[in-house]
# Entry
Amino acid sequence: MPQAAAPHDATGGDAHGADATLADRAGAQASAEASAAEEHAFQQAFRGSFTSALRWHHLDALWAVLRADADGGWYLYAVGEPPPEAPASAEQVHRFIDEMDALLRREHDEDYCGIVYADDLKAPALVKIYDPNNLGVVCGFSDSPPLPGWVMSKLKPVDLPAAQPAPKGRRRWWQRLFG
# Structure
């Protein structure tokens, strides 16, 4: 028995092909909308309320929470570099925390920390780490506060416009760490 020909659309094309093209377009639009929603969620969280790890022992406590959740889907983002496409491994998170702690203690020679901020110090989902060599006005009010040097986030980060290009030494440090 002969098989029936596939129905044709008004343009003479295969109607099933037209359905597939519409489905492809709908899928692409849904993907773009999901991406825009992710970007909005990150930007909203980034502009949210943060608490400083004011003293070094507060930073130690934050690091302990982050180490315990190292496999929690953390994105590690060096602002000024392309944002990561995938979360870091637990090993990368541990290495990042170790290296960052050493850098902050070496280069922020103060009896207080005050340059690491988390949305929640006990259950963080987003952490901003300011570069000790590019602090500007981190706390208080400024029309153009500096961007953090690094961000740890459970949300996929978006490209934050750099207020200044990262110093070459910092870029080399980052590239050596994960390059």
